[in-house]
Please model this.
Amino acid sequence: MGYKLTRDDFAQVIHRLSGQYRIYAPVLKKGAGRFTDTDVVRYDFVTDADEIELTKKSDYAFKEFLTPLSETLFYFTESKVTEAELPDTPVLIFLRSCDMHAIKRLDQIYLQNGSMPDWFYNRRRELVKFVLIGCSHSYENCFCVSMGSNIAPDGYVFSVDVRDDEVLCDVPDVAFDSFFAAGTQQNVVPCHVTENETRVTVPENIPLSIFKDPLWDEYTTRCIGCGRCNFVCPTCTCYTMQDVYYTDNGRVGERRRVGASCMVDGFTNVAGGGQYRKTQGERMRFKVLHKISDHKKRFGVNMCVGCGRCDDVCPEYISYSNIINKVNDAVNAAGKEA
Model:
């Protein structure tokens, strides 16, 4: 079942939803970009439809609710551990098709990657429902078609497509029909991209020789190790732990889970002063092959969903999509030599 609404009707839908849900959506932040005169689109809680940015691609992913950059897990004293409280109000997250696919990757890492699901992730995940933002056209650096993430999977409660002065919504979850009572019923198929300007070819079988291929050497000098590509990525999940002590004896404080990056110094430090993947080229190799090979071997799908945010944010103009194609060329060359 779908609905056609006016913009005013849609504003009323959001108003009614905000009475029952916390709404987490992309918001245009004027003058808050990387430079003083630039804007940025990032996620925030909203209560009004006019606050939701539905036409621009978000510069940052939705994941900061599910995996905050810094999250207190629990508080401890000498004799007691207390889990940090989390508001139990359900949350609606507005996101695009590629990010809907990214949810599956996050769930695989946090819920299916071991003998026990991650309890702290799961308690947030159980609060969340998703609203699909349709894509009527491809954005710069997107390659979702190549990664098979251009069509949203099932799991959204309703979709949003803005066309001139109308808002079209597909509402597969009948529990949300009552919010759209002011609309006109009609069949709605969410918009999706069928072609990107950027295209990649992911090789099926990557030989071990690629680990020593000179293609990675370029990034030892080009990459500055800022980690921005990881922090904007919807599927990067690495973190570290920090204990913050309130007393000098270190027996009262809190433990925090803090976002980390495989591209920055210190991430692979180990006891005794050792460090794996010392160069940026080695780190780039690890990141890329994890996204297009290792994750698929374990879970059956590539980790990368082709959102292109890493290309958008890189201060050195390193193109991740270009690296994938370089890996494919190297794999083909290795096959011919064999």
Observations:
- The longest strand covers residues 22-29.
- The chain has a mean pLDDT of 95.
- The CA atoms of residues 10 and 181 lie 11 Å apart.
- Residues 2-67+87-185 form one domain.
